[in-house]
Amino acid sequence: MLGRHHAQEPAKPVDTPLLDRAHLDAQTFGDADLAREVLGLFERQLDRLPPLIAQAPEPGARVDAAHTLKGSARGVGALRVAGCAEACEHGLRAGCAIAGELAGLAEAVALTREAIARTVAEMAEAPR
Question: What's the confidence (pLDDT) of residue 108?
């Protein structure tokens, strides 16, 4: 079936925060150096996975990339990216076209990159 899917739609990603600092702090035990390192690793995922979700030649690879991005994003508190990746994953598993989901993911990735840059700058300015 092509087109938008309707079964078990994830929560609207646009309504979720870009970067949940409390979650990030909990995951990194409040260690700013560790948080910066984890965010750097996540940014590499943002470079690598969205193109695979959009263009990997095998459908299974696209689903795997969406699933991996969803987990990585949840791990650092990038909740909007996680929601968009989940929407892509659901659509791909259902065999649907996901152009709208990909557009939402691209926007979430761009905004989250800005949020990460602000967060890293704030961490650098904070007293140790």
Answer: 97
